[in-house]
Amino acid sequence: MAAQRGEGDAVVATPRNPADAEVRERARAIPEAAVARLAVYLRVLSGMVDQGVTTISSEELSSAAGVNSAKLRKDLSYIGSYGTRGVGYDVEVLVSHIERILGLTRKHSVAVVGIGNLGHALANYGGFPSRGFPVAALFDIDPDLTGVPVGGIPVNHIDDIATVCAEREVSIGVIATPPQAAQAVCDRLVSAGVQCILNFAPVVLQVPDNVEVRKVDLAVEMQILSFHVARRADEAAGEVVNGVGVDGVVIRP
Amino acid sequence: MAAQRGEGDAVVATPRNPADAEVRERARAIPEAAVARLAVYLRVLSGMVDQGVTTISSEELSSAAGVNSAKLRKDLSYIGSYGTRGVGYDVEVLVSHIERILGLTRKHSVAVVGIGNLGHALANYGGFPSRGFPVAALFDIDPDLTGVPVGGIPVNHIDDIATVCAEREVSIGVIATPPQAAQAVCDRLVSAGVQCILNFAPVVLQVPDNVEVRKVDLAVEMQILSFHVARRADEAAGEVVNGVGVDGVVIRP
DNA sequence: CCGACTTTGTGCAAGCGTTCACAAGCGGTA
DNA sequence: TACCGCTTGTGAACGCTTGCACAAAGTCGG
Ligand SMILES: NC(=O)c1ccc[n+]([C@@H]2O[C@H](COP(=O)([O-])OP(=O)(O)OC[C@H]3O[C@@H](n4cnc5c(N)ncnc54)[C@H](O)[C@@H]3O)[C@@H](O)[C@H]2O)c1
Ligand SMILES: NC(=O)c1ccc[n+]([C@@H]2O[C@H](COP(=O)([O-])OP(=O)(O)OC[C@H]3O[C@@H](n4cnc5c(N)ncnc54)[C@H](O)[C@@H]3O)[C@@H](O)[C@H]2O)c1
Question: What is the pTM assigned to this prediction?
Fold first, then answer.
């Protein structure tokens, strides 16, 4: 029974080696939420490098990343102490350390399965290769698509998934098939040795424990937004009657 | 008080009444994480309805949704007590209550801004309308696109965003423009009265407090996957020395 | 070299969210 | 009606995350 979202780790550790052990130790202890933020910091920092910024304080970086500065510093402390008190952080140093922790020193080839509306968009998207995630293979079940190049890469038939993934050392599989096909595709990716899956189909995938799945479910996102609209409407209807909301805050009409 | 579909949702113009107040109270207390899961339960339950299932236990539903059963029951308890002990939940009752809490009794019109690769995929996607999120407007800055129908809807020019959004009662704005344009587009959406934004551009948006933003950042998702690969690789390298990993689990060579 | 000033890194406490475990409640059965 | 087995609903414990507040550690001007 594998959980859909890879969370909850924090187990006991047993380091044995000299310097490597420390990195491992650190990596294991980083909360999932912090990892997601580190990726955001990395993006912001990359922008800073392009602008020629060499040094940045936790206050500046945190506001650019939309978090508070204490949280930012705590997050950075998980990966080590690379700041200079009274000055801030060296942008390039920070970038390289975050990249190391996120495992971005290695290239991660991506395979997209299901070259429909979404699959086309993903295959054409320039943002992946530029961040170290080259799209190395495309798969579809439609024979009319096989051989057709999309985003510069010819589509392979899904039946060749095992050999092609092995050949091109695919480490991340992206599922963009209809929901009915998703579990089967997932199983084939897993058989092909892919251990990381990004799933766009609105289904809960069952995978072995050694496979990491993350899902992107746009309908869920919309429903969360919808919930907030409803909540706000309710609050307004209920609390604005006397012009004052909870905590005595005045609500605009 | 049986709130069924189509009940025009008393929220806006109704006077205070105890049942509403209770719903309000409940809605406010639901943790964000639980809201996201409720949306998943809803999807699973919809599938159950289609299969003719009328009753379901927390155990069954939780495993179909990929969570543990205690969490599921706790989540459902946030919205009220609609199960029958010894039996389980009536699927349709549960569906209607979750829909009510998520605010899905109302339609939420969606506007997509930036009709490029991703925008096209979104506009063509049938999964939104079918879940109560009709795509009501499309916008782009490219004059060659204005008037061109995508997914059955003609693209409007971004300059008309305020009037068109008002006319079509857009309540959710989706940003699929290049990152450089995202903040400006966001500002225009907010000016147009849109209070919910789903952002695909890899930037942190600045919005007023009364606007809800959710972001979908695929590069971040990939980097989180990358982190787990790296962590696993490190663990294997470090722990496999004596052939035994954490928890005494033997790691494959 | 010193002292004022700035900013990091982190111990700690409070807040949330998750999980456990079990009493309460219900349907079925005799 | 009384009992039994099953499943819900939830209080309480636990553990992760956040935010505060401040000592430590560095810079810089004199
Ligand atoms: N289009 C969007 O914007 C969007 C948004 C959110 C979620 N999604 C989800 O993403 C998935 C894809 O959406 P889409 O709009 O691109 O659908 P689509 O129908 O346009 O494309 C699906 C593609 O998958 C291929 N396919 C079907 N079965 C397959 C199999 N067994 N193996 C390999 N390929 C197979 C089809 O040939 C087709 O090319 C769906 O699950 C959808 O719910 C799409
Ligand atoms: N394509 C993907 O699969 C993908 C994946 C992840 C994230 N994204 C992000 O989504 C966004 C869109 O990606 P894309 O691949 O569709 O890009 P794209 O270049 O294909 O499309 C962008 C569209 O936005 C329009 N546009 C530009 N400025 C605008 C403005 N000010 N107002 C309105 N429209 C404007 C352009 O005319 C173009 O049609 C980007 O921010 C990208 O980083 C895309």
Answer: 0.88
